[in-house]
Specification:
single chain, about 350 residues, alpha/beta, Cytidine Deaminase, domain 2, 2 domains, nine-stranded mixed sheet, 10 helices, 17 strands, about 25% helix, about 25% strand, Riboflavin biosynthesis protein RibD, multifunctional enzyme, zinc, EC 1.1.1.193, APOBEC/CMP_deaminase_Zn-bd
Length: about 350
């Protein structure tokens, strides 16, 4: 039967372990969700575990079951998985079928899968095979872990994170957009970690011109994001990093240009709103999340449209820019989720 019975402290411990394992797939499993799985024997001992390590590779259940010693009777085990086992053939066979085939009779699931290709069908396969299925253990934690995936499935758009660094007196750049070093070394390292966790990173024209950013990962291990640039008139000079062909880059423009050297140009019709075109393009590319690093015009446009899920502000306690600088986007928001010190900077996270 399927139920949402009260879970024991041991059940909670096992699912927390599965969620921790799932997080190891951050940056690599996308656009698939991060999934972890653990197997406990009849005595509650952990005898197998795994996670979805890479898109196109074996799913968490496959890796977890493969790690269980041959002498263990899986019919006497309880399997904990952070997301409903898949029921369809994709790049790998259905995990629900694998669990049934291996004789698993007891499954605990954190979150149901909103993907229309699954959406309860995985649980139905297990139930039809006579498995006991329990759902909803640490459901909120699981949704937060896979908030990008759930946003894409439920809202049909990527998860947007707006990020900026501002001085102690509320500016993001000097006069005329002149770059100013605002964040300390620890905050810069944290930003590079964030870049590994999101599928794409976006900037507007002024930031691209003034800062000449690379938008890659240099101070943390992990994959580079897809670079997204709004450049209405193709004002970026060929010498700028964003046109160096070093990583995939999509440029949204109202001019005409030929794709080349890892660069893709998406033409926005004259007088058209950029946002719908960008959203349609990101959905077509299966982009799950976008880290928006600036500048204020782009941030304000997204804020006005209500197109954000998180805002991360790094505020310096030591750097001041003074009158004439570029003012940071105004924040009069509730929903402060986190506040902590990062070296000489303060991090504020709104959700």
């Amino acid at each position: 039967m399927s139920d949402t019975a009260t879970f024991s402290a041991h059940d909670t411990l096992m699912m927390r372990r599965a969620l921790d394992l799932a997080l190891l797939g951050a940056g690599y499993a996308r656009p698939n969700p991060m999934v972890g799985c653990v197997v406990a024997d009849a005595n509650g001992q952990l005898v197998g575990e795994g996670w979805h390590q890479k898109f196109g590779g074996p799913h968490a259940e496959v890796n977890a079951l493969a790690s269980v010693p041959a002498e263990v009777d899986l019919s006497q085990c309880r399997v904990y998985v952070t997301l409903e086992p898949c029921s369809h053939h994709g790049k790998t066979p259905p995990c629900a079928d694998l669990l049934v085939e291996k004789g698993v009779r007891d499954v605990v699931v954190c979150n149901l899968d909103p993907n229309p290709l699954v959406a309860g069908r995985g649980l139905e396969k297990l139930l039809q095979a006579g498995c006991r299925v329990q759902t909803g253990l640490l459901e909120k934690d699981g949704r937060w872990l896979n908030r990008r995936f759930f946003t894409v499935q439920e809202r049909q758009r990527p998860y947007f994170i707006l990020k900026w660094a501002e001085s102690a007196d509320g500016f993001v750049a000097g006069p005329e957009g002149q770059p100013v070093a605002i964040s300390g070394p620890a905050a810069k390292m944290l930003v590079h970690r964030w870049r590994t966790e999101e599928q794409a990173i976006m900037v507007g024209t002024r930031t691209a011109l003034n800062d000449n950013p690379q938008l890659n990962v240099r101070e943390w291990p992990g994959p580079n994001p897809l670079r997204l640039v709004i450049d209405r008139t193709l004002a970026l000079p060929a010498t700028h990093h964003l046109l160096d062909g070093s990583q995939p880059t999509v440029i949204y423009t109202q001019s005409q240009a030929e794709d080349a050297d890892n660069r893709t140009y998406v033409t926005v019709p004259a007088n058209a709103d950029f946002l719908p075109v960008i959203l349609d393009d990101l959905n077509a590319r299966q982009v799950q999340s976008v880290l928006v690093e600036g500048g204020p015009s782009l941030h304000n446009m997204l804020l006005k449209a209500g197109l954000w899920d998180e805002i991360r502000v790094l505020r310096s306690s030591t750097v001041r820019i003074g009158a004439g600088g570029v003012v940071a986007p105004p924040l009069s928001l509730t929903g402060l989720r986190e506040q902590r010190t990062i070296g000489p900077d303060e991090l504020f996270v709104f959700h």
